[in-house]
Description:
Blueprint: E1 3-11, H1 17-27, E2 31-43, E3 46-52, H2 55-66, E4 73-76, H3 82-94, E5 100-102, H4 119-127, E6 133-134, H5 138-145, H6 152-166, E7 170-172, E8 183-187, E9 190-194, H7 207-220, H8 225-241
Parallel strand pairs: 1-2, 1-4, 4-5, 5-6
Antiparallel strand pairs: 2-3, 7-8, 8-9
Helix pairs in contact: 1-7, 2-3, 3-4, 5-6, 7-8
Amino acid sequence: xxxxxxxxxxxxxxxxxxxxxxxxxxxxxxxxxxxxxxxxxxxxxxxxxxxxxxxxxxxxxxxxxxxxxxxxxxxxxxxxxxxxxxxxxxxxxxxxxxxxxxxxxxxxxxxxxxxxxxxxxxxxxxxxxxxxxxxxxxxxxxxxxxxxxxxxxxxxxxxxxxxxxxxxxxxxxxxxxxxxxxxxxxxxxxxxxxxxxxxxxxxxxxxxxxxxxxxxxxxxxxxxxxxxxxxxxxxxxxxxxxxxxxxxxxxxxxxxxxx
Length: 259
């Protein structure tokens, strides 16, 4: 069985973060492991409180995993301060980790801010170069590129800017477009669009966590990057289209949806 590690924050409501990651990985029939970086008090209505764990316990968790059950792929989600980012970078470099999917979590679906302002530059400097794929949503891509994104043409310009700057493949997620939910992959081979219609469902809490965990799971099982994204997009669409309705705000997906 392939092993996949999630490095992320805990979501007390179970819709995002490590809870969504583990549900997604288990659905993909890989062995899920976790390094918790933060504990959040959140639900479908928003993020009420964030408590970042000490860098020493993050470091110890990483050592425990890599010295025993070496992961075939890694998903990185919420890493909200400089000390934690530095520790993760050091450990992933030391252990020569592979198949790293980085979801640069900055803003939750419910609009709660999840990262310190000063940590963003450290994230870009230390973790971006280690990634196999970086998966920002439109708001995160705007923050990273300092370019306004309102349509697919803007997505291409932002993707080109980000790839030129960081030399790492980016998947810019178009779930917040007005006309579609199409995602754009850019690699050294150019652009590739994953076309997808908008699904009429406001319950999209944890979509970014779910997609990145699915991609990591598929990479662990040997898919090419392009195929891993294609399969993950299909899975995510099914999970959204199930139209699970839990909570009073933006509810979670149904992670165990059948193919």
